[in-house]
């Protein structure tokens, strides 16, 4: 018998998609995502507005691992970590990388607005798509996993 928790959420907004990866038992579930501007202009500032459902208060440190790849000329190329953007692992996302977050993040439905400044540009081409996987682990073992695909990006 299927439950609502066993159905994978896949939403389309513009030309990008997102879904929760892993199990339905993750404590952090993405319910909505808005990216402004879209397409993302590199280098530049971009704002991510996340509508999340949190089952328990998230106690920091909140370890956050970003795996970000750009699709360039048909190949996926890893986006290297530079400062706080790119394929980075942050020991405490709330404390170091995202100064707009308040920790602990309270249980329930939350809207998190995260401005990120991207310093990188796409190699070899002026536009493309980016796919990312973001994994979370809190100090008390709360987990989450999000995949965002087909984010349109272009160089200035």
From TrEMBL:
What GO MF terms are annotated? enzyme activator activity; lipid transporter activity
**Which residues does the UniProt record annotate as the domain MD-2-related lipid-recognition?**
18-150
Q: Which Pfam families match?
A: E1_DerP2_DerF2
The source's domain of life comes to Eukaryota
**Key words, A-Z:** Signal
Give a GO biological-process term: ganglioside catabolic process
Q: Name one GO cellular component term.
A: cytoplasmic side of plasma membrane
Looking up InterPro entries in the UniProt record yields: GM2-AP, GM2-AP_sf, ML_dom
What is the protein name for this chain? MD-2-related lipid-recognition domain-containing protein
Q: What is the lineage of its organism?
A: Eukaryota, Metazoa, Spiralia, Gnathifera, Rotifera
